[in-house]
Amino acid sequence: MTTPFTLTFDCAAPGALAAFWCEALGYVPAAPPAGFDSWEQWLIRFEVPEDEWDDGAAIEDPSGAGPRISFLKVPEPKTAKNRIHLDVQVGGGRATQWEERWPKVRAKADRLIAAGATEQAVFDLEGRPDHVVLLDPEGNELCVV
Predict the structure, then answer these.
(1) What is the pLDDT of residue 41?
(2) What is the CATH classification number for the domain harbouring 28?
(3) Which strand ranges, in their side-by-side order, compose the sheet holding 128-135?
(4) pTM to 2 decimal places
């Protein structure tokens, strides 16, 4: 039996980072809790001060297959390399011919750069580009493979 989990990012701007990761993963903003038509309605109901409304955000896989991802505002900035990162798997795996795989990897990396990521490195395998390491808008590492 598996245990449900949520992957959580500590960050400075939860709403903005959630929007970036929606683009990266094809996720959507998380639905409000049952009984509420919107997150705003939930925040008002529980008297959360408006200046705290962007202290958290959550996204989810629209198919329900992937884990929920949450983003929590913290006061301290990121200071070191992540000990865990996400691989955005768009190329079909290394069993897929390089001529088919690499354009998909490069195109996704370019879309994420346009959405606010920074390219950190392109790694080669057997003399050809294999995957791209990016930093999300808050400096969290991710790979496009």
Answers:
(1) 96
(2) 3.30.720.120
(3) 86-88, 141-144, 128-135, 118-125
(4) 0.92
Distance, in Å, from the CA atom of 108 to the CA atom of 131, rounded to the nearest integer, reads 11
- Residue 39: domain span: 6-73
Residue 121, helix vs strand vs coil: strand
Assigned token pair, 39: 């997150």
Q: Are residues 51 and 96 in the same domain?
A: no
Q: pLDDT digit string (tens) for 95-141?
A: 999 999 999 999 999 999 999 999 999 999 989 999 999 999 999 99
pLDDT of 2? 86
Q: Which residues contact 54 (CB under 8 A, 6 or more apart)?
A: 13, 14, 15, 73
Q: Which two tokens stand for residue 78?
A: 């990121």
Distance in angstroms (rounded) separating the CA atoms of residues 102 and 11? 31
Indicate whether 79 belongs to any domain. no
- The total of other beta-carbon atoms located within 10 Å of residue 13's CB is 15
- The pLDDT-based confidence of 3 (bands split at 50, 70, 90) is confident
Q: What is the bridge-based pairing of β-strands 28-29 and 56-60?
A: antiparallel
